[in-house]
Amino acid sequence: MADNVYDAIVVGSGISGGWAAKELTEKGLKTILLERGRNVEHVKDYVNARKDPWDFPHRGRRTQQMIEDYPVLKRDYPLQETNLDFWVNEKESPYTEIKRFDWYRGYQVGGRSLMWGRQSYRLSDLDFEANLKDGIAVDWPIRYKDLAPWYSYVEKFAGISGSRDGIPQLPDGDFMPPMEMNCVEKDVAQRLKDHYKGDRHMIIGRVANITQPHHNRANCQYRNKCWLGCPFGGYFSTQSSTLPAAMATGNLTLRPFSIVTKVIYDKDTKRAKGVEVLDAETNQTYEYFAKVVFLNASTLNTTWVLMNSATDVWDGGLGSSSGVLGHNLMDHHFRAGASGVAEGYEDKYVYGRRPNGIYIPRFRNVNGDKRDYLRGFGYQGGAGREGWGREIAELGIGGDLKDALSEPGQWTMGITGFGETLPYHENKVTLDKDKKDKWGLPVLAIDAEIKENEKKMRKDMMADAQEMLEAAGLKDVHTYDAGYALGQGIHEMGTARMGRDPKSSVLNAHNQVWDAPNVYVTDGAAMTSAGCQNPSLTYMALTARAVDHAVGELKRQNI
Amino acid sequence: MNRREALSAVGWILGGTLVSADLLVACTSKPTKVNDLFDVDQVAFLNEVGETILPETSTPGAKAADVGSLMAVMVQDCYTKEDQDIFLKGISQIDEASEDKYGKKFMKLDQKQRTALLTALDQEQQKYQAEKAPEAPNHYFRMMKELTLFGFFTSEVGATKALRYVETPGRYDGCMPYKKGDRAWAT
Questions:
Q1: Glucose-methanol-choline oxidoreductase C-terminal domain spans which residues (chain A) (predicted)?
Q2: Between vectors from CA A241 to CA A236 and to CA A242, what angle results, nearest 5°?
Q3: pLDDT tens track for A114-154
Q4: Which residues lie across from A413 on neighbouring strands?
Q5: Is A279:A257 a contact under the CB 8 Å cutoff?
Q6: Rg of chain A on CA atoms, in Å
Q7: What is the pLDDT of residues A302-332, one digit of tens each?
Q8: Does residue A384 lie in a domain region?
Q9: Rounded to two decimals, what is the model's pTM?
Q10: Between A and B, how many CB-CB pairs are < 8 A?
Q11: Closest chain A C-alpha to B3 CA, distance in angstroms
Q12: A391 and A476 together in one domain
């Protein structure tokens, strides 16, 4: 076999690309995993993971230089000192904002699987049937039963801890033992159950942190430093989980610094032959050939690759014959909710830093509830005692202040909504051929915003949070809307959606590009609607399912 | 020592002599800079301000955590130019307030006087902060107090002596008994 010929090519090494590489190699396919950024080796390259807070020159805070260098990252919490190397160099890789769009990217082996929030929830038929029932966008070409076994499959390998709660709109999975709620959260959960008579639930977050040793990984050590990379392998990342499995097969070649510029499309066979790669270090161009290509470059970059491919056949690129490539960009809108004070727990505290919170599954527009907007939202949050950063105005300065701040403060609890955004055709990305990145490649122009449906929902996200916290007995409950711009949820989805008709979708029910059936897209680009659940677990399940399909089709010589 | 090393040592001494002469001149005029904005005297001053805000009690105070040095780094690297100017001017304003009230500079005050002076400034900043427009800059003493608290409680001394710190807890207990006086967890 020539050194540029493989059975399979995977573009991107984040959550879904790592899964594609694992599944393909375990099924015996010689696979090359192409990653545009540098390599990050498990444990060895987690350079800040064992540092103490005082080891950082600015104790984690952002400098003026960082603010200047990261005009997008600075808009929210990701810009700080402790894991800056895991975020994209924005000067090298700009993009165009026709409207404000926050795009937080991780260009390295492992992608954002290193820094993700790890909340892992299944979609249900409430989500898969939503577009059909509401008569918007297009219908998902799959239902929960199609994905359920694959959810189980990926949960068992990734290691998702959580409780089985029997909530239809948030199906239970194959979980490791759940993390524990603290005493305030336990009481709030019980009071909500009593007050809402079982219509609303508060559960412990289902999270990709393992609570038992698993595949040479140590269980979570409750350090809450996941996004520095975990030296214990306590959470799911490409590095801790899928990459070692793929490597163990002997079938994987990992090539960092490989920017895939296009899928090489053969118009005679109507199949992809491989991909073209620009070496990010040498600027040399290479071609790699394979029978099947998986695009897992992250939602918007996967669409960027498609738009740059087969332009001799379709001006808009591979998949553009649908008329929807680049359209229906979605995210989860959040940063609206409420918080309050829990009294009566002064003799209680916690030990350990739990990297997880509580979750309140969607209850709006469910079970006969009807609002003046479509879909709904879930809440994430938690309770804890205040730390030294609290204000004690009456103590001013001096020894009493220091001693008071050396003790924990009152218990507070906050919840913030994560709401579904609808797929709007006019929320779109296009190629901006006038602006080039460091490598002379055209960049994406993003033109998207939230609309009335989301804005109405945000009012409920605040009001319902207040009502529930007050029903649970909390005092001084305040609502907030800290403002939100599309992309800020770091859950960008859509732009190459699955569907039932090649005239209105880019991908079929197995994530194959209608116009090139040996090209599979299984990252967030494939999403037909957004749900309100954190989406990564769905990408994992879609990927494992699609690889199973691809290998079957290869055997049947259909692709 | 071989010949090459001996020669280079001489060269170093010669160079050192030049530096020493330079320092000698410097000592008579300006104290050594710690960075572009602060010198050692200002760091010592900020350590005393910090110690007055968070003094040694049964646990060490802010000076033991060298919050003055951290303030110099944070103001230089993390503050905007506008906030840097307010902060630096604040150092002289404290001395001016001290001269007005006690007829001498802050560093010459005894601990009781320092506490009285900074307590008044803290009341001034609280009033100012409550009344200012949201986009208006913070009061300089607000900045000093914030950096003192931040610098102290994130320092090794603050995190391990005033607070409790466990790098790797290894487990989670969501309902641990607590009694008044038990220290808070750092981070």
A1: 423-542
A2: 120
A3: 999 999 999 999 999 999 999 999 999 999 999 999 999 99
A4: A340, A383
A5: yes
A6: 23
A7: 999 999 999 999 999 999 999 999 999 999 9
A8: yes
A9: 0.94
A10: 150
A11: 41
A12: yes
